[in-house]
Specification:
With about 80 residues, the chain is mainly alpha-helical. Helices cover about 75% and strands about 0% of the residues. The protein is flat and about 55 Å long.
């Protein structure tokens, strides 16, 4: 086991933590803006089926992207990407 894993200390520098903080702030701001825009559309109603298919679309899209990225990493590790 490498020495850095034994002591339990983080391997991120101050710049790494700052980058994570900035990315988290961007995420929170984008969620706030999305909710603000969504609620500003007065009179728009989505049924339960609409919500179901919206959630399913998001889940399938993320699963497809994760699966494709896993295949990319697998093929790179097993020298299949020539």
């Amino acid at each position: 086991m490498p020495e850095s894993e034994k002591d339990g200390k983080s391997q991120l520098s101050a710049a790494g933590w700052f980058a994570l903080l900035v990315l988290a702030a961007f995420f929170v701001i984008s969620l706030w803006y999305a909710v603000k825009v969504w609620t500003a559309m007065a009179g728009v109603h989505m049924s339960g089926w609409g919500w179901l298919f919206l959630v399913l679309g998001v889940v399938v899209t993320i699963a497809l992207g994760a699966g494709l990225m896993a295949l990319v990493f697998y093929s790179a590790r097993h020298d299949m990407d020539r």
